[in-house]
């Protein structure tokens, strides 16, 4: 791990140098900012395949990596939207893909099968980075400001009847005391070590199987808004939450943090470590919760293609040319 420590340490300096040089070259009448970023972070001669999971946020992030690496000169295979967590991770460790966006909480609890994660996002990413490289030669690059953790939502009608937002405790008490209440979840959530079990343990209430309905991720939002689901399990930065006027159940620090990084095979990373660090940093650093939710909304609620939303973000932030 020591040989990677210096490379991680230069991240801020490389990224700052890149953006400064972009401004200088553009002012001097040279190529536009996107071309300058690509030139400084040349990946010419490198071939790699980018994958992602299959929900909207993952699609947008995956397309950002595809387009940014391509603009930097790499030959990029596009496997964005592969499937669920296990599918994407298996593709990475088997060499089917070289990189995909992943969450620190998922890395710690699911891929590395560890307990007692840090609730400090920087520390959790550092812990995952060290252990995943040591065990699997997987490198974690960068860390997003946004934290897309799990949560539950209720419809405007259910929220109003409650007199305001539920807390995790009152949500679970409501389900316990109302046998007709239905909680809609995606396939993985009930059995994930970072999923439903954390809510059950924190509240001391077990969710009855008869009140759980398994739906596709995207359907949960609309079915909760239409009161088919009393509550729905969601991702907290999903743009459909504000678009459908859903209300998040107030989490009192139960769920693990989920900041995103690019996870890359060590063999691929070694070909151009500083370039990969700088490109990923340029992508992730502007992505706070509000920005990511708005990008997600453009896909999930407004119907735009993930590739279009990704390109608009990259161009706006001077990462690639328009």
Structure in words:
The protein has 322 residues and is α/β, with parallel strands linked by helices. The protein has two domains: 2-147 and 260-316, D-Maltodextrin-Binding Protein, domain 2; 150-248, 3-Layer(aba) Sandwich (D-Maltodextrin-Binding Protein, domain 2), CATH 3.40.190.120. The chain is built from 16 helices and ten strands. The two termini are 38 Å apart. Residues 1-34 have low confidence and may be disordered.
Task: Give keywords.
single chain, 322 residues, alpha/beta, D-Maltodextrin-Binding Protein, domain 2, 2 domains, five-stranded mixed sheet, three-stranded antiparallel sheet, 16 helices, 15% strand
Ordered list of secondary-structure elements with their pairings:
Elements: H1 2-9, H2 11-27, H3 33-40, E1 47-53, H4 56-71, E2 75-83, H5 85-94, E3 99-103, H6 104-111, H7 121-136, E4 138-141, E5 150-154, H8 156-162, H9 168-177, E6 183-185, H10 196-203, E7 212-214, H11 217-225, E8 231-235, H12 240-243, E9 247-248, E10 260-265, H13 266-269, H14 273-284, H15 289-300, H16 306-316
Parallel strand pairs: 1-2, 6-7, 6-8
Antiparallel strand pairs: 3-10, 4-10, 5-8, 5-9
Helix pairs in contact: 2-3, 2-14, 4-14, 4-16, 6-7
Quick take:
By secondary structure, the protein is an alpha/beta fold. It contains 16 helices and ten strands.
Helices and strands: which structural class?
alpha/beta
How many separate structural domains?
Answer: 2
Main sheet strand line-up: 7-6-8-5-9
Helical run tally: 16
Largest sheet: 5 strands, mixed
Query: How much helix, percentage-wise, in residues?
Result: 40-55%
CATH architecture identity of the largest domain: 3-Layer(aba) Sandwich
Shape descriptor? globular
Number of strands: 10
Query: What is the typical, i.e. mean, pLDDT?
Result: 88
Order of helices and strands: HHHEHEHEHHEEHHEHEHEHEEHHHH
Could you name the CATH topology of the largest domain?
D-Maltodextrin-Binding Protein, domain 2
- Taken as a percent bin, the fraction of beta residues is 15-25%
Separation of the first and last Cα atoms: 38 Å
Rg: 20 Å
Low-confidence stretches: 1-34
């Amino acid at each position: 791990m020591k040989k990677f420590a210096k490379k991680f340490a230069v991240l801020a300096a490389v990224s700052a140098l890149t953006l400064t040089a972009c401004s200088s070259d553009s002012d001097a009448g040279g190529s536009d900012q996107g071309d300058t970023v690509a030139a400084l972070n040349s990946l010419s001669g490198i071939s790699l395949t980018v994958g992602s999971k299959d929900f909207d946020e993952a699609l947008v992030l995956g397309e950002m990596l595809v387009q940014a690496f391509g603009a930097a000169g790499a030959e990029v295979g596009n496997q964005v939207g592969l499937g669920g967590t296990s599918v994407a991770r298996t593709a990475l460790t088997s060499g089917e893909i070289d990189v995909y966006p992943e969450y620190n909480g998922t890395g710690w609890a699911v891929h590395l099968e560890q307990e007692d994660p840090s609730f400090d996002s920087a520390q959790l990413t550092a812990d995952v980075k060290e252990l995943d490289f040591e065990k699997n030669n997987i490198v974690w690059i960068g860390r997003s400001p946004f934290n897309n953790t799990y949560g539950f939502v209720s419809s405007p009608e259910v929220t109003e009847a409650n007199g305001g937002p539920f807390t995790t405790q009152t949500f679970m008490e409501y389900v316990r005391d109302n046998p007709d209440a239905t909680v809609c979840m995606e396939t993985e959530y009930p059995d994930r070590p970072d999923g439903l079990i954390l809510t059950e343990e924190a509240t001391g209430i077990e969710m009855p199987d008869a009140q759980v309905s398994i739906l596709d991720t995207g359907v949960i939002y609309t079915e909760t808004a239409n009161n088919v689901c009393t509550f729905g399990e969601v991702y907290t930065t999903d743009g459909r939450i504000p678009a459908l006027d859903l209300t998040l159940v107030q989490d009192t620090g139960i769920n693990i943090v989920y900041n995103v990084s690019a996870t890359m095979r060590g063999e691929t990373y070694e070909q151009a470590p500083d370039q990969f660090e700088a490109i990923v940093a340029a992508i992730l650093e502007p992505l706070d919760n509000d920005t990511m939710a708005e990008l997600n909304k453009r896909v999930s609620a407004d119907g735009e293609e993930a590739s279009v939303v990704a390109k608009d973000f990259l161009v706006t932030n001077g990462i690639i040319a328009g």
